[in-house]
Every structure is written in structure tokens, then in C-alpha cells.
Amino acid sequence: MNILPEIAAHFEEDRALRRDLHAHPEIAYEETRTAGIIAEKLRSWGIEVHEGIGKTGVVGVLRNGSGTGRIGLRADMDALPMTEANTFAHASANPGAFHGCGHDGHVATLLAAARYLASTRRFSGTVIFVFQPAEESRGGCSAMIADGLLEKFPADRYFGFHNWPGVPSGTAATRPGALMASSNRFRIRMRGKGSHGAMPHLGQDPVFTLIQTAQALQGIITRNKNPLDASVMSICHITAGTTDNVTPSEAFMEGTLRTFDNAVTDLIEERMRRIVECTAAAWNNTAELEFTRQYPVLKNDPEAARLAAEAAREITDVNADCDPVMPSEDFSFLANAAPSAFMFLGAGDGSHRDPGHGDGPCALHNPSYDFDDNLIPVGASIFARIVERNLV
Ligand SMILES: [Zn+2]
Ligand SMILES: [Zn+2]
User: Fold this and answer.
1) Structural domain containing residue 289
2) 391 alpha carbon to ligand 2 midpoint, in Å?
3) Which numbered ligand comes closest to the C-alpha of 75?
4) What is the mean pLDDT of each run of 10 residues along the chain (392 residues)?
5) What's the angle, vertex CA 327, arms to CA 345 and CA 338, rounded to 5?
6) Model confidence pTM above 0.90
7) Are residues 128 and 142 part of one domain?
8) What is the CATH number of the domain that holds 151?
9) What is the whole-number distance in angstroms between the Cα of residue 7 and the centre of ligand 2?
10) What domain count does the chain have?
11) 340, 265: one domain
């Protein structure tokens, strides 16, 4: 590992900041304390600051020399609306909010890179630091773009990373092309006719119809789609009825569909509509399918991915052709706007966690998760070298 010395020197301070953010998590679009800390730090290092972009987003602009190149570096700030199972000193003090995805670490890392770049200034051009709200299903990146991010602070390329359990600790991984899947939400409302649970023939049971629909939908993945096109569908929420002997008049389910290809999404959505409508009709129910395309596929520009991997290789081991993953990222909106690259930083197996962590594995969105502070100087050094190598 070749951490840049000026970054390594601030490790204690960066770890303390990360743990403070962890103890004070804020969910989507409520990141006011976090954004305030970011703005204050950036200003204290002489970086131009713009606040309130996409509600709570913060942009820092750092210019140096006469270079005309512009690089955007992005971190997400939001916590998850869930309860933390850890009891160590820096565990969440905000019930119902938890940095279970490590965005506290992403913020600390990008700030460490900003401090380094502002003090060393070994580049010529413009660095744009993008701190976005609401990455977790709430479209914070789109909110910043709708608020003029790309027009007011255009960059030629964007770079970002996510800490990633399963990738060896402290190493980096990326790939040219699709790295993370698109996310799509479906909601199905089945309407029938309520009845006595002992006399279902007098009604039209929507629970029965919904269950058949749920089972049929998985057939799209295994029977209709080309097996070589990766995709996954999960029904994650089902609700109906109030008690054991009343057949309700309505049943509801929702879930997520992930794919790497819009044509595959189109095919699956079309088949879903047909199955939902026809299954409902077969049992004298009516159904409504709401299908929402949330985040597009995160596609790395091959050249940007190569530049990111080369910079990262100066700092740590790099897998420049890792497997893509089914989770999604709204960094994809930046990657669709300019040639960009996203990386994973290996988060290891959880052995870094302080005593007092919960029983769970060190997995994203698990209530026992905690970002590994040792990744801060690694990620910051990679960001710094991406800038120094490419803004000359
Ligand atoms: Zn997450
Ligand atoms: Zn995340």
C-alpha cells in the first residue's frame, strides 16, 4: 500500500470525522448537519462552496494553474432508515437512522482528498467535489442534476467509489462497461371482492390471485429472457387482509427488478403487464401494475476506467476487470452525462470493527455494518492521484 504521506498524516483526524458522521446519521434529503460540516471543512481549506443543490447537496470547486481540464469527484452522504445493531462508542445516536452502507466513509474520504488537493495543488485545472444526498433509492444525484449541477459545474469526467465487502480489504476493483445493474421498482395492486373466509366462492379472492401472479412472474426470468442476460427479480413486500377469517378485497405486493440492458427491462416489463392482467382476469380480479425505472445501468467509460485503474495501481492492488454486481448506484446519472468511472474499494470481512458490533456479517445494509476507517486514506490517495495524473 502506498498511501500519500500528506494524507496518511491526517488519519486520526479523518477517522474521528468519519466516526462523528457515523454517530449522527441523516437519511435522504435530511443531511443538513452532514452538509454543514462538509461546507465548513471545504471553506476552511480555501475551496469555493455551493450549498443547497438538490436540496442538501454540496459542491466544492477548486481551481489551480491554467489547465482547462475539469474532473468531478463524487461521494454520497445519506444514511439508511434502519436501526443500528452496534453498541460501540460511535454507534448511531439517531434512532431509525444508520450509516449501514458506509456513506459516512465516502464523505470522509472525499473530504480527505479535497484537503490534500487544496494544500498540495500539484495539478492544473479544476476539481469539482460533488457531495450528493439521497443515494439510497431516493434519486439525490438526479435532484442535483435537475438543480443545474451539470450546467453550473460541468466536468469532463466523473469518478466515484463505493466500499465493497467481498473485495479484498484495501484493494480496488473496477471494469470497463457495465459495473452495476439498473434498478426498477414494480408495485402490483390486485382488486377482487371480499368475502367470509369460509365462503370464498361468494367473493373473488385477491390473495389467491396475487400469489399465483407472484409465482408466474419469476417465470419471466427463467422462461422468457435469454439466460445469458443477467437479471434478478425479487418481491420484497406483500400485504393483504387484517385477520384470519376475512378474505380481503385487495392485495398488494412490490419488488425490484435489476438488469444490465434496457431491452431486457422492456421485455420483462411487457411480460409482467401481460401476466398481471391475464392472471387477474382469469380469477375475475382487476390489477394495476406500476413500473418505475429508478437508476440506469452504471456503465464505466472504458478510457475513464483505465485511467482510474492506473491511478489506483500506484496506491494498492487493482482488479481492472472485476465482475459486475446486481445492486445499483445513481452515480449512473453522472456516468450517462460524461465519460466516467466508478470503483469498488474492498471492505474485507468485518474484522476491522470495534468491539460492540452486532452479530451480523460485515455486509452492506446489515445492521452490524461499519465502514472500515483504513479505507479513507486509500480512497483519498486514489482520488488525489486521478486528479494529479489527469489534470496536468
Ligand atoms: Zn446502500
Ligand atoms: Zn451505498
Assistant:
1) 182-294
2) 28
3) 2
4) 97 98 98 98 98 98 98 98 96 97 98 98 98 95 98 98 95 98 98 98 98 98 97 97 98 98 97 98 98 97 98 98 97 98 92 83 91 97 98 96
5) 70
6) yes
7) yes
8) 3.40.630.10
9) 24
10) 2
11) no
